[in-house]
C-alpha cells in the first residue's frame, strides 16, 4: 500500500440501524480505546441521540430509514474522497459495514472474501424485521431495500462469504443461508480448529479479506459490553435470538488463521454496548456541579 491515503479509519457511531441509542457512545469508546493510527481518520456525521430525536419512525419497512440513508451517503462520500486500499470501521451498529465493504468489493472484485464473525447472519429484509442492522449482509449481496442496495455497485457473491460463530439461526435466516450456499463455521467448529475457514479461503482463492466483528458474537457471561448482557434483562427478553458463544481468544484465533491466508483490507468492530460506562455517564449527568447536559436514553428497543 504505497499511497498516503491507503489506510482509512472510519468512526461511525450509527445507532439508528439497531434502534439503540447507546451504540453512539459505544463507537466513541472504541475510538478512544483503539491504538493510534498514522492513516486518515474520518468521522461520519451521525446525530447524537437525545430524548427528542431517539424515537424513530418506520419508513418503507425500515426504522429510521431517512437518517440511515443520509449517513450511508456521508460514509460513501468520505470513502470515495480518499480512495483507500484498506478501511477500518469503529461502529455503531452492524449496518456500518455496508458502505466500506461495498467499496472494497468494488475495488477487489472476486479476489475479496468477507469473514462475518457474528452470532447472526444479518440477511433479513424489511419483510422480516424493521431494524436495518439485521439487513446488512443481504444488502451487500444486492438483496433488500433499495435505500441500502443502491450503495452496492458490485454485489458480493454468496460463495465469497463465511459466517463464523453463527448458531441457531431463525427459520428465514436458515433458509436464506441454505438457498444461497453461504459457508458457515459454528462455535463448535471454531473451537475445534476453524479449519472450515481456512479451507474456504483456499477453495475460493481469496486474496483479500474484509472482516466484520459483531461483538455480540462473544459470550455475554464473559464479555459484558454487548446487548445480551444488558443489566436487569429478563431471561426471555430476546426470545429465540441467538446469544454469543465465543471468547475473545476464539475471535483472535479466527482472525489470525484467516489473515495468515489472505491480506486484511477491511475490519469492522460493531455493536459495542458498554453498559457500566453508560450508566455511569447517566449518573454523572445528574450529580450536582457536573450535570446540565441532555440525557441519552438507556432504553433498548427491538
UniProtKB/TrEMBL annotation:
<dbReference type="InterPro" id="IPR023696">
    <property type="entry name" value="Ureohydrolase_dom_sf"/>
</dbReference>
<dbReference type="InterPro" id="IPR006035">
    <property type="entry name" value="Ureohydrolase"/>
</dbReference>
<dbReference type="Pfam" id="PF00491">
    <property type="entry name" value="Arginase"/>
</dbReference>
<keyword id="KW-0378">Hydrolase</keyword>
<comment type="similarity">
    <text>Belongs to the arginase family.</text>
</comment>
<keyword id="KW-0479">Metal-binding</keyword>
<dbReference type="GO" id="GO:0030145">
    <property type="term" value="F:manganese ion binding"/>
</dbReference>
<protein>
    <submittedName>
        <fullName>Arginase/agmatinase/formimionoglutamate hydrolase</fullName>
    </submittedName>
</protein>
<dbReference type="GO" id="GO:0004053">
    <property type="term" value="F:arginase activity"/>
</dbReference>
<keyword id="KW-0464">Manganese</keyword>
<dbReference type="GO" id="GO:0005829">
    <property type="term" value="C:cytosol"/>
</dbReference>
Amino acid at each position: 500500500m504505497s499511497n498516503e491515503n491507503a489506510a482509512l479509519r472510519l468512526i461511525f457511531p450509527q445507532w439508528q440501524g439497531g434502534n439503540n441509542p447507546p451504540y453512539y457512545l459505544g463507537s466513541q469508546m472504541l475510538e478512544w480505546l483503539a491504538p493510534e493510527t498514522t492513516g486518515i481518520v474520518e468521522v461520519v456525521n451521525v446525530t447524537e441521540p437525545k430524548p427528542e430525536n431517539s424515537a424513530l419512525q418506520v419508513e418503507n419497512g425500515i426504522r429510521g430509514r431517512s437518517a440511515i440513508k443520509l449517513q450511508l451517503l456521508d460514509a460513501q462520500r468520505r470513502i470515495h474522497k480518499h480512495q483507500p486500499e484498506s478501511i477500518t470501521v469503529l461502529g455503531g451498529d452492524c449496518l456500518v459495514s455496508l458502505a466500506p465493504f461495498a467499496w472494497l468489493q468494488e475495488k477487489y472484485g472476486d479476489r475479496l472474501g468477507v469473514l462475518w464473525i457474528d452470532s447472526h447472519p444479518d440477511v433479513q429484509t424489511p419483510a422480516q424485521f424493521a431494524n436495518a442492522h439485521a439487513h446488512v449482509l443481504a444488502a451487500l449481496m444486492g438483496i433488500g431495500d433499495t435505500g441500502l442496495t443502491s450503495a452496492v455497485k458490485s454485489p458480493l457473491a454468496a460463495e465469497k462469504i463465511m459466517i463464523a460463530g453463527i448458531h441457531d439461526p431463525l427459520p428465514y435466516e436458515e433458509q436464506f443461508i441454505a438457498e444461497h450456499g453461504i459457508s458457515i463455521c459454528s462455535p463448535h467448529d471454531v473451537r475445534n480448529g476453524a479449519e472450515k475457514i481456512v479451507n474456504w479461503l483456499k477453495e475460493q482463492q481469496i486474496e483479500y479479506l474484509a472482516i466484520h466483528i459483531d461483538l455480540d458474537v462473544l459470550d455475554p457471561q464473559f464479555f459484558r459490553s454487548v446487548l445480551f448482557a444488558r443489566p436487569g434483562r429478563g431471561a426471555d427478553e430476546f426470545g429465540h435470538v441467538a446469544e454469543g458463544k465465543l471468547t475473545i481468544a476464539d475471535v483472535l484465533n479466527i482472525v489470525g488463521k484467516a489473515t495468515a491466508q489472505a491480506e486484511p483490507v477491511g475490519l469492522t468492530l460493531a455493536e459495542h454496548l458498554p453498559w457500566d460506562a453508560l450508566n455511569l455517564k447517566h449518573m454523572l449527568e445528574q450529580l450536582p456541579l457536573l450535570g446540565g447536559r441532555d440525557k441519552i436514553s438507556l432504553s433498548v428497543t427491538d
